[in-house]
Amino acid sequence: MSIGEVSTLLRGAVLEVLLVASPLLISALVVGLVVAILQATTSIQEQTLTFVPKLIVILLVLALLGSWMFASVRDYTIQLFQKIPDMAR
Asked: What whole-number percentage of the chain has pLDDT above 90?
């Protein structure tokens, strides 16, 4: 196995992680931004006010996209296992 093949595998793994994690991260970022703007306009500085909405939104995104996330990671893992015989040469 050459350095190019290893870097291709690592690049694919990083892209897969970014692809799977991005809906969760983006939704948490948007909710955090909305709550921060709400807190700034109302002068409410309660720490749990940012945590609870993010938790709820992340759980909703997981409920909606969890099957797609699992299928994506499963397909990538199957591709990796199929490449094992070629790596042994």
From this structure: 69
pLDDT digits (tens, 9 = 90+) for 31-60: 999 999 998 898 888 878 889 999 999 999
Is residue 12 within 8 A of residue 76, CB to CB? The reply is yes
Domain count of the chain?
1
What does the block give as tokens for 78?
Answer: 């199957």
Give the span between the Cα atoms of 64 and 43, in whole angstroms. 33
| Residue pointed to by tokens 């006010």 | 49
What does the alpha-carbon distance between residue 26 and residue 23 come to, in Å, rounded to a whole number?
5
Kindly report whether the global pTM for this prediction surpasses the value 0.85.
Answer: no
Q: Domain range spanning residue 79?
A: 3-87
* Angstrom distance (rounded) from CA 10 to CA 16: 10
Q: What share of the chain is helix, strand, coil (3-state, %, to 5)?
A: 90, 0, 10
